[in-house]
Amino acid sequence: MSEPVLRTENLAKRFGGLTAVDNLSIAIPPGRIHAIIGPNGAGKTTFFNLVTGMLSPTSGRIFFRGHDITGLRPHAISRLGIKRTLQVKSVFPELSVADNLWVTRQARSRFLNPFRAAASDKETRLRVEQTLEQTGLSALAARSAGTLSYGDVAMLEIGMAMISEPSLLLLDEPTCGMSPAETSRAVAKIRDLARTIDIVIIEHDMDVVFGIADDITVLAQGAILASGNPAQIAGDERVREAYLGRPEDEDFVEEAAHA
Ligand SMILES: Nc1ncnc2c1ncn2[C@@H]1O[C@H](COP(=O)(O)OP(=O)(O)OP(=O)(O)O)[C@@H](O)[C@H]1O
């Protein structure tokens, strides 16, 4: 079996008396889109925060392609090739789409080697162009980010995570707030990206989850409730129960029926 892209061993995070992530042992294989779903408060975002070093675990270990990354600082984890998007969008609204990508890329090169900044301009330009294409934003390159639609801002966020060529991309509810048309465009783009990069996605929209994921892990109260392919998850009684009776998640039952 190939090395998991991400693996945790008894990972736990407690906030005072609250256990947000509860002895989680998960192995995410490479080359697939892995969705993490679960009711509100299940620990999904906390899991991303632990993987990216934004939070330190209370106990347990995290491995990225076999390397123990537990306790590394966020910038060190980012340099190893793990990037994420946040639920709260963080583009620079006054800058153009291309310049948002440019400064994100340049910030990284300058950080890596301040003396190479000028020499890297050409390479940056190329990478910005590639990322505009990958995210479907080429036609909007000159537009101020502050004037974009919500869906385009979300794609720009993905582009800003992609521009430094990570090998693992963590997407936190990428289609949240998008129109149905924007959502299907984003889903197609994320599928394209997954050909060259490993993707783990937290998503509430079950239409997206069942349409995009190769594998799904369901979290509840910080622990794994179920894991499997979309058909297995759709047919899992415990998962249905976890979602039933939650009006905001009614679409799970509906979408699962079509999976
Ligand atoms: N910094 C923090 N301090 C205290 N409690 C926190 C903190 N971050 C998260 N929690 C709590 O940990 C639990 C898990 O939260 P988390 O945001 O990881 O869930 P989630 O599955 O991402 O939820 P949602 O789907 O609503 O985003 C929740 O009860 C939350 O209130």
From TrEMBL:
One Pfam family from the record: ABC_tran
Span of the signal peptide: none
GO cellular component terms given for this protein: plasma membrane
Family annotation (InterPro entries): AAA+_ATPase, ABC_AA/LPS_Transport, ABC_transporter-like_ATP-bd, BCA_ABC_TP_C, P-loop_NTPase
Keywords: ATP-binding, Nucleotide-binding, Transport
Domain ABC transporter: 6-246
Recorded GO MF terms: ATP binding; ATP hydrolysis activity
Record flagged with keyword Transport: yes
Primary role: Involved in beta-(1-->2)glucan export. Transmembrane domains (TMD) form a pore in the inner membrane and the ATP-binding domain (NBD) is responsible for energy generation.
Protein name (database record): Amino acid/amide ABC transporter ATP-binding protein 1, HAAT family
Species this chain originates from: Bradyrhizobium erythrophlei
